[in-house]
Design brief:
Length: about 80
């Protein structure tokens, strides 16, 4: 759904897709509203959940229960 928002933003020489960047901001703000611990704590919670989900998806792909495409890795890499 976030890829329907087109456009790119250049930040210090890096080009970010606008849709996924807005999705990350919306996710962190949602966590901030739910837990009311502050934006830094919300960013830490978001990073932690992303790391755990990445590890679970990687283990599932490594064991053959899923594919690495679920992690965003294109075929052939």
């Amino acid at each position: 759904m976030t890829y329907l928002i087109s456009g790119f933003v250049s930040v210090d020489g890096y080009v970010l897709a606008l849709g996924p960047a807005l999705a990350v901001v919306a996710y962190v703000l949602t966590v901030d509203l739910l837990y009311e611990k502050g934006i830094v704590q919300a960013a830490a919670i978001s990073l932690g959940t992303w790391t755990v989900s990445f590890a679970i998806l990687y283990a599932a792909a490594y064991l053959g229960y899923s594919s690495f495409r679920a992690l965003g890795v294109p075929p052939g890499l």
